[in-house]
Amino acid sequence: MEQGMSLQQSVDELGVLIDGCYRRWYTALAELPSYGERVDREVLHFVDVCRNIALGNLHWRQIFSHI
Length: 67
Prior knowledge:
By secondary structure, the chain is mainly α. The protein is 79% helix and 0% strand. The longest helix is centred in the C-terminal third of the chain and has 29 residues, at 37-65. The model has no long low-confidence stretch (mean pLDDT 89).
């Protein structure tokens, strides 16, 4: 609302931003090159760990922002 938008406009804009993030994420995953089954599995595990770290930081931020 500090940006001159109503609450609904802000939520709508957030939805657009999140959709874009998911689109880029899944496009990047689809474009990962293949290095063979074993390496591909390890790469996907690494990518999943990176995603979980980012999600963990987001969740911690949300928890501590309410304290």
